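Long-time lurker, first post.

We've been arguing in lab meeting about whether zinc ion would sit comfortably in this protein at all. Half the group thinks yes, half thinks no, and nobody has a model to point at. So I'm putting the question to the forum: if I give you the sequence and the SMILES, can you give me back a predicted structure of the complex? Inputs are below. Any interpretation is welcome too.
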Amino acid sequence: MRITVLGAAAGGGFPQWNCNCANCAGVRAGTLRAEPRTQSSIFIRPDNSDDGVLFNASPDILEQIRANPALQPGRTLRDTAIAGVVLMDGQVDHTTGLFMLRERDAPLPLWCTDPVFEDLSLGNPVLRVLGHFCGVQRTRIPLDGSAFEVSGVAGLQFRALPLQSKAPPYSPHREQPVAGDNIGISVTDSRSGKTLFYAPGLGAIEPAVFEAMASADCVMVDGTFWTDDEMVGLGISAKTARSIGHLPQSGPGGMVEWLGKLPARTRRMLIHINNTNPILDADSSQRDALTRERVEVCEDRQEIVL
Ligand SMILES: [Zn+2]
Ligand SMILES: [Zn+2]
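Top reply:
Settle the argument with this. Predicted structure of the protein with zinc ion, as tokens:
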């Protein structure tokens, strides 16, 4: 399978429109060795197919389609390589792009869990609004570990894993998180036998999560924050990384420590990187620390073949 990183940044993107932190100001001024990044999304297609699956629909989806010609194969007057959309959660930075896909003449094939479907029908009724345009053809993502497929994308099997997290701010059950608010997904290519584990929002590594990571050939996981108090330290927010469902990379029990426990053959990649994270700066000591641990920092338009 071919995995294309459409957007490697967390919500807000990099640089974020209203932010003048050292990273955002530096990348705007060209004084920082860093690449701008759009908001979190990947596209996966089998080796022998143009059509694939879009994971999350970022507010930057139109820019991402323009930047990645493979998403527009141009076979007919109206065409797309997006055979279906799979949602990891119901957050704004992962679902707003659904509005941008409304000019279809058939309902948009959409896979999401029940709690995400509820949030996008009630709290933030994106799907009800879309009903006035193309509409969606929704399929439930099972949470019992059973495999599902996306029609039009033969040879790829998907398995969801519920992750510890919080529901979005507009969710009717914001304070009572339920299984399926946020998922990780293992994607297995039946031809190559290879597996990707993808979890752009990951608050804690529970045993089942580590098991899924350890049995994958490549993991693409939460790279939002370097430290738990990153936003607090900058005076941007009173919330810690963990309190909003993101395991920080550094320190005891952090993501880097967990990645170090994976088998030597596993490719380790961080995605969904917040604009405040020092790992965006290619000259930072934090990036050096990742390089020493063989952990990669995803970039937009990067392609991985598994
Ligand atoms: Zn996000
Ligand atoms: Zn910033």
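For your lab meeting: The chain has one domain: 2-305. DSSP finds nine helices and 13 strands in the chain. Whichever side wins, do check it experimentally.
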